[in-house]
Amino acid sequence: MNKENLRAQIITRLEADHALLLQAAKAAHAAASHNENIPDNKYDTRGLEASYIAQGQANRAEEIRQALQAFQQLTLQTFSAMSPIRLTALVQLKDDEGRSRLVFLGPAAGGLRLEFDKEKIMVITPASPLGRKLIGKQCGDLIKLEIGAVRKYEIASVY
Fold first, then answer.
1. Which architecture does CATH list for 90-158?
2. Strand 90-95's sheet: what is its strand order?
């Protein structure tokens, strides 16, 4: 798998998400300051609620901007079967039932899901429970993840 193309796809997705959130924040800000949202009485909170929405969307847009910057500055590493897993590893995991899943260990944007080369990939961070379990492991190692139910995975390959 070409991780440079994967990184480019992540950046494109983050740019689109950032633009969308900026637009939503501007619309919410406009709604918060619109004449129709001037309070009629002390119990009318429409304008206040719209300003909370605008602030939340602006905060999320800033988080995405920071994630975008992190991916733009990211130096991709090359891994072998004996390399310990660290940032920029693309890891294939297999569960007890033989199902496979791919995760990309990125600096930010944990939980981002995308399709790349006809494969579903999820971005995780080293701070996530799965990321913490994977750091330092190698191909062939087993990990146990306890989030609700206990799940066991074998590290099938690292790219």
1. Roll (3.10)
2. 113-116, 119-124, 100-105, 90-95, 149-158, 142-147
